[in-house]
Amino acid sequence: MNSSIAMPGHQTQGNVMYLTALVGTEATRSTVSDVLRLMGAGDADVQYAASVPVSMRRVRAGETLFHEGAHAESIYFVRSGTFKIFRTAADGYEQVLGFVGRTEVLGFDAVSTNDHPTEAVALEDCSVYVLPMRDLFGLAERCSAFGRVVHLAVSDALARQCELADVIAAVAAEVRLARFLLHLSHRMAACGQSPRRLLLRMTRRDIASYLGVAHETVSRSFTTLAGWRLIDVDNREVTIVDMKGLHALSLGTRRQIDEASRRCMAHPAVVLA
Amino acid sequence: MNSSIAMPGHQTQGNVMYLTALVGTEATRSTVSDVLRLMGAGDADVQYAASVPVSMRRVRAGETLFHEGAHAESIYFVRSGTFKIFRTAADGYEQVLGFVGRTEVLGFDAVSTNDHPTEAVALEDCSVYVLPMRDLFGLAERCSAFGRVVHLAVSDALARQCELADVIAAVAAEVRLARFLLHLSHRMAACGQSPRRLLLRMTRRDIASYLGVAHETVSRSFTTLAGWRLIDVDNREVTIVDMKGLHALSLGTRRQIDEASRRCMAHPAVVLA
DNA sequence: CGCGCGATTGAAGCGACTCAACGGCAGTGG
DNA sequence: CCACTGCCGTTGAGTCGCTTCAATCGCGCG
């Protein structure tokens, strides 16, 4: 029952309150071994890990896990759901840094400064394991499997940062969107889900901020890609129709898409059909 | 003799070979305590740390520390110099992800995949402590101070990634450049150096890739900022003349610089003087 | 001295930003 | 119940800044 009631944007009002009472925001009791299982660690030290309690917290859609600049008390392992990570500029502009999901670590960038440099907001109902920062070193020392998991998760977060650069590197807005969709597709595949059916948890504005373009441009790029028969778009539901074509489009960094667009746009009748 | 004769850029030809023989790529003997001192750790566990040898490697300007896609054998702590981190797209476009200097960690993003997702090239003569990956876990377990240092350094690297997003978030090229220069200035200050005198180690093209604009635009932005009397530019030597003005300019994310530019351009005579 | 490369500057085209309007949907309150 | 209010998403039109192509200059090096 992970992300059953997706509720991406902002809503989740009405009949949710009783759910709160039911599952509770009060920390469900779990142990480090649950964290290790989530992160796909081996079965080493499970006996010890099973003896160390860890709290599990549910975050409903639209809620903030931690604010930018807030004192950091814990790091988090995402058990289910999707978070949006962003920074707010002096003029109020929200720059989205990324979207993180299951098995990813959150808040580790605050270890060095003790303050969160970013804000994390749940885009759907989420659940995270909460690990107090003061327990980090000790636990990593006592439980080598846990230390390993932290290293791997953080390294993964570090490597994932280049996805943003990858997207930004392309000049054409359609190429940026194509790369973004392919990243999502790869994540879906990594989770064993269909890499062709994407259910976007974020708004067009969030995507626009992440891609570094205006949100109107994102809208236009969606319709353009759909017009090229590379994807099907129904609001937040995106289906990749032509995976190879999408990948081919994503390769061009500078503006030589003319050939590709010419090839695709060579079927205007089909596009209009 | 890993990648001694890298030849990525262009320079480092002629009289460099004998230097190789002189200072040697052969690892200078150091210990973990040297690493701890570099990273500003406390004096805990120094006795043990001093007993664990660590190799120190010199990398000359233009040489590659590790290639993109290469099997990762070690992580590195930068002792001196500056590295350029980048990825190469399918069409040969180099996307620069960042520039790392003293006390920063390099290559940790390969821990999870065992392959380097990025390439690191020395922009000047550098020296790094080399820590084999197979020793990472064990050393962190046995020497808690070292484990702490790794956590802090990696967290710092994670937090530093938002500098790229910060730069990219601005739409105007001059604002991106201004933010970039301010980041460099802050690093200079953190190292106890003058925050106003910057000696750029990278080419305009590298900056352009990092900022996500054409290199001609970087050139133009430099002259524009100089024309506004915010900086002085002499090729790679940049002096921040008006720190407050530069900061004020860097605040505008969207394109409302008109007021600021008008205010600055209100003194055309002064500009031309 | 020629070659390659970095850096600057110019000119022209185009694509993204901006402003604006519209339809759709959900939650709200009379 | 239904207008009312936001917000999301889409589409249109116009402006402007960046990209692109091009030429030039300076510099290190063979």
Could you tell me the mean pLDDT of chain A?
85
- Provide the CATH architecture of the largest domain in chain A: Sandwich
User: Helicity level of chain A, as a percent range?
Assistant: 40-55%
Strand content of chain A: 15-25%
The biggest beta sheet of chain A is recorded as: 5 strands, antiparallel
The span between the termini of chain A is: 40 Å
> CATH class of the largest domain in chain A, please?
Mainly Beta
**H/E topology pattern of chain A:** HEHHEEEEEEEEHHHEHHEEHHH
The total of helices of chain A stands at 11
CATH topology of the largest domain in chain A: Jelly Rolls
Output the keywords.
Jelly Rolls; homodimer; 12 strands; four-stranded antiparallel beta sheet; DNA-binding; 273 residues; Arc Repressor Mutant, subunit A; 11 helices; 2 domains; alpha+beta; disordered N terminus; five-stranded antiparallel beta sheet; disordered C terminus
Q: In words, what does this structure look like?
A:
The structure is a homodimer of 273-residue chains. Chain A has 2 domains: 11-164, Jelly Rolls (Sandwich); 171-263, Arc Repressor Mutant, subunit A. Chain A has helices at residues 17-23, 32-38, 46-51, 136-142, 144-169, 173-190, 204-211, 215-227, 243-251, 258-265, 268-272, and strands at 28-31, 53-59, 64-66, 74-80, 83-88, 94-100, 105-106, 119-122, 126-132, 197-199, 231-234, 237-240. Chain A is globular. With 273 residues, chain A is α+β, with helices and mostly antiparallel strands. In chain A, the strands form 3 sheets. Chain A has a 5-stranded antiparallel beta sheet with strand order 1-2-9-4-7. Chain A has a 4-stranded antiparallel beta sheet with strand order 3-8-5-6. At the A-B interface, helix 4 and helix 5 of A face helix 4 and helix 5 of B.
